[in-house]
Specification:
This protein is mainly β and about 120 residues long. It is built from no helices and eleven strands.
């Protein structure tokens, strides 16, 4: 049924940048919206950003708007999350998912394994 493989997480200092990648293997998700979610310790998983199948429509959580950019390359079966001006409150496990363009996790049918992003002050 395919997999979503996430990479790019790590430890960065506040104000720094990271780029997360989510690459589909085994099948293409080019006809799906792709989303990013995150879950911090002790908190519920929350929406970060989403992009429609063509890359022409996007959604962002207010907490990341202006700092994060979602993009996709359907030829590479990959969606990206460019994270700039990182803050300690961005520390979380980040997940990518495929489904419908939405801020609700229930709209997504396929999920990657997640990658840890840690932002130090």
């Amino acid at each position: 049924q395919g997999q979503l493989v996430v990479s790019g997480g790590g430890l960065v200092q506040a104000g720094g940048s990271l780029r997360l990648s989510c690459t589909a293997s085994g099948r293409t998700f080019s006809g799906y919206a792709m989303g990013w979610f995150r879950q911090a310790p002790g908190l519920e998983r929350e929406f970060v950003a989403s992009i429609n199948w063509s890359g022409r429509g996007t959604l962002y959580a207010d907490s990341v708007k202006g700092r994060f950019t979602i993009s996709r390359d359907n030829g590479k079966n990959t969606v990206y999350l460019q994270m700039n001006s990182l803050k300690p409150e961005d520390t979380a496990i980040y997940y990518c998912a495929a489904g419908r363009l939405s801020s609700h996790e229930g709209s997504y049918d396929y999920w990657g394994q997640g990658t840890q992003v840690t932002v130090s002050s």
